[in-house]
Amino acid sequence: MANVLKHLPELEGMELGYIQGILKNMDDEQAGLFAQVYRARRKDSQMVLILALLGFFGFAGLHRFVLGQIGLGILYFFTIGLCWIGTIVDLVNYKSLAYEYNIKIAHETLSMMSSTNSSDTDQNTAPSHEA
């Protein structure tokens, strides 16, 4: 069982508990690989907050673009954050927006690791046709 605080000490709150559940069946090597990929792709909730705050200065929707919600980002940009109401709601919910995105990234990282492991296993078990 890998220790999440050893591999991802920057996590906190619900994200820490969720990632601990993912890492509990991994050894240290697998957890280290997961942590490298996950850390590179996850978004910090403070960054989402700062980008949402920029919505009040004419750059509404930047946080939605960063979170991969391109359609909402375009909608926020052209409607000035839905007349600032959407931006205000997102300022209140910035932690849950970042959490939902990071959970999606954790699952994508897990599926990427499992597909890599299965292709490695297939290459190791494939019969050799060299004579």
UniProtKB/TrEMBL annotation:
Superkingdom of the source species: Bacteria
Query: Could you tell me the membrane topology recorded for this protein?
Result: Multi-pass membrane protein
Which UniProt keywords are listed? Membrane, Transmembrane, Transmembrane helix
Q: What is this protein called?
A: TM2 domain-containing protein
> Any transmembrane segments, and where?
48-67, 73-94
Q: Establish whether keyword Transmembrane helix is in the entry.
A: yes
The TM2 domain, residue ranges: 46-92
Report the GO terms under cellular component.
membrane
Annotated Pfam families: TM2
